[in-house]
Design brief:
Length: 369
């Protein structure tokens, strides 16, 4: 993750002579000691705490793995894992400060096993990872469990959180997904998962040399992926061959895929575009989604506002998913078939066609060239 303040010299070891990236880190915690999860700015509390800082993190979803070392046998095993959700642009802003988190591993008196406790840097109670307020061991940065605010009360949540923000691509980011392992990160799971709002400000493409099979670029609920005007996202054909060698651009329920005027998505074979039920596809004037031969378009009931054009190139195309709910297709929408054949699923009946017909006041133009 690129730091919001790249001019701030970080105190963790530099990677590839670039101070602008945050890739987590690794730290040994002695029994009863603590480590500090530092957020974004590279600030720390005193010189003694530098040795206790675990890398640096920023916005997004972070996974932590805790390993136990058995000194008697010199063996190492996974003790615990948990998540820290930093998907909130409000995090770190007043009135709820305390953006960093302290973690301690200790064994309470009479307990048989060690426990992981955390506390927000703004002081407050130490909270066990298995506290009932923590769901699926996922700590949400905007829900300050253990803290008390005179304004917002116990366990405060900043109003308007989580706020997905308005992030923009950097001019050197030419492919997606971006893998933290390319910049010194130890692991990067679900690299294609977009948890924040992202605007693509220059032409960009997916990788042709896949790292994951399949490679999923996923817009999660509440987040958006927006193509700026006259920009192109090219979902490239992979260099490898196989049943799982493809890229799938997925808009999940409640997610937004937005094409500004003149922008274009080009889907090359054998890649896919999947719109989950109650996702949102918004296409502005002169925008286009272009499906090459052998691609898959899966619409499971997305809410469609189309003022642009969906173009199917000459050849066979499959629509392998049923539409589970009515869709809304905007005025001046075009579905263009360039001598293409659309393969509907066997159970796509006339009643489904009736149920999912366009709104009477909209015009859906299907043309063959």
């Amino acid at each position: 993750m690129r730091r919001s303040n790249p001019t701030q010299a970080p105190f963790w070891p530099l990677l590839k002579n670039d101070t602008a990236f945050l890739v987590g880190g690794r730290k040994t915690i002695a029994p009863g000691d603590y480590t500090l999860i530092d957020f974004d700015d590279g600030m720390y509390y005193d010189l003694d705490s530098v040795s206790k800082v675990l890398g640096g993190i920023s916005y997004g979803l972070w996974r932590f793995e805790v390993y136990f070392t058995d000194i008697s046998t010199n063996s190492i095993f996974l003790f615990e894992e948990f998540y820290l959700d930093e998907s909130d642009i409000n995090h770190g802003q007043e009135p709820l400060s305390g953006v960093d988190i302290f973690f301690t591993v200790l064994r309470r008196t009479g307990a048989l096993n060690d426990s992981i406790l955390f506390v927000h840097s703004g002081a407050g109670d130490s909270v066990n990872l298995y506290d009932s307020r923590i769901v699926n061991k996922n700590i949400k940065a905007w829900h300050k469990i253990g803290l008390y605010s005179p304004i917002y009360g116990q366990d405060p949540i900043k109003p308007g959180s989580p706020n997905k923000g308005d992030f923009k691509t950097y001019y050197t980011d030419l492919t997606m997904p971006i893998y933290g392992t390319d910049f010194g990160g130890r692991k990067h799971e679900n690299a294609g998962q977009l948890d924040m709002n992202l605007t693509v400000e220059h032409d960009i493409s997916t990788r042709d040399s896949l790292i994951e099979f399949p490679t999923n670029v996923v817009i999660t609920p509440g987040a958006s992926l927006t193509l700026s005007a006259n920009r192109t996202l090219e979902i490239r054909s992979p260099s490898s061959i196989g049943d799982t060698a493809y890229t799938n651009l997925i808009a999940q329920t409640g997610a937004y895929l937005i094409l500004q005027s003149g922008s274009k998505i080009v889907v090359q074979s054998p890649n896919r575009l999947t719109l989950e039920n109650l996702s949102n596809l918004i296409m502005n004037q002169n925008s286009e989604i272009h499906f090459k031969q052998g691609t898959l378009f899966c619409n499971k009931g997305s809410r469609l506002i189309i003022r642009g054009k969906i173009f199917f190139e000459k050849g066979m195309h499959q629509i392998p998913c049923n539409v589970e709910s009515p869709v809304s297709i905007g005025d001046s929408a075009h579905i263009v078939l360039d001598s293409a054949t659309l393969s509907l699923p066997d159970d796509y009946t006339s009643s489904q066609r009736q149920r999912n017909r366009p709104h009477p006041q909209s015009r859906l133009k299907a043309s063959v060239r």
